[in-house]
Design goal:
The protein has 338 residues and is an alpha+beta fold. It folds into 2 domains: 101 residues, Phosphorylase Kinase, domain 1 (2-Layer Sandwich), CATH 3.30.200; 213 residues, Aminoglycoside 3'-phosphotransferase, Chain: A, domain 2 (Alpha-Beta Complex), CATH 3.90.1200.10. Helix content is 43%, strand content 16%. The strands form 3 sheets. Strands 1, 2, 3, 4, 5 and 6 form a 6-stranded antiparallel sheet that branches. Strand 2 and strand 3 form a beta hairpin. Helix 9 packs antiparallel against helix 10. The longest helix is centred in the last third of the chain and has 21 residues. The radius of gyration is 20 Å and the shape is globular. The model has no long low-confidence stretch (mean pLDDT 92).
Length: 338
Amino acid sequence: MSFEISHSLLKQVARLYNIDSRGLKFEGGFDHLFYGYSIKGKEFLIRIKTDMNLDKKSFIQIKAEVDWINYLAQNDIPVSKPQLSCNNKYVEEIRIDNKSYIVISFSKALGNYINFRDPDEWNDTLWEKMGEILGKMHSLSADFVPHMNYKRIEFEEDIFLKYDIILDHEKDKDIIELYSSLINWISTLSKPKNAYGIVHGDLNWGNYYIYNKTRFTLFDFDSCCYNWFIYDMVILIWSLIWEKPVKSAIKVLQEFIPSFYRGYSKYFTLDDKWIILMPDFLYFHDFFLYTAISETINAGNTTEDYPSMLEIIRKRCLSGESKAYFTHEEWIKLFTTS
């Protein structure tokens, strides 16, 4: 269940940023709650995370997240930048009644979510620009040196890979068997510097805003981790097509990928041996999300239509739809025609 924020906690949070708690406006959230505020006409968000099991490792992981975001900002990636508190800290911890709350403030992204029905926004210029941003991010990742005292987790440490704990062994028996084989497969992959590094980890189309039809701002980096660059790309592509019939999805991919990869390859390129794994990673992502959404439902989040989404993804898992779009050779051709 999402947690409650007491008035006394909000007052402490407000003091950290020298604002009046009455100026904090609830913006939503679940495992994180977000409150908006403004200073001299500029908009900001405060992210508050709590968990009875928060420990030193949790605090270190969030400091590592902020370290990565600041590195991107310093290298001209358009991100929502962390803001220092009155204590000159990016990450603050508040303890009340034996509960720990981790607090961060970010600049608020300008604009709104992409309007897919507006051809002035949703077009090959935008696709190429998004490719440029992700390509530059992966290029920076290849050279990124984490802080000596904190580093983000490796992908295999993610809780959602612990499907045997989260999923129902009776209802999800077939899912578990297939997912187990995919995890065995992914564990055999190499992790070269030109294909593996710290990534956003959840760069779907809901985690950035566009302003004035041209200006991007990326946010929601709390899933950042060490992962394959191709998988970071997969998440973006998957979020475009997961609800579409196969023929419609193929059409979208044929339009999107050449422009996207044209932008991406201005800063970074992936060897063909990773591109041919695109359908395998797409298929893997079906199972990863099935487990993630199952865990969210188990925790009591009913704010979105997760049961319906879960059923769609379940069908994708059992049908192998992600492997039906193109052959390995067709995937390579799609990227090389950019």
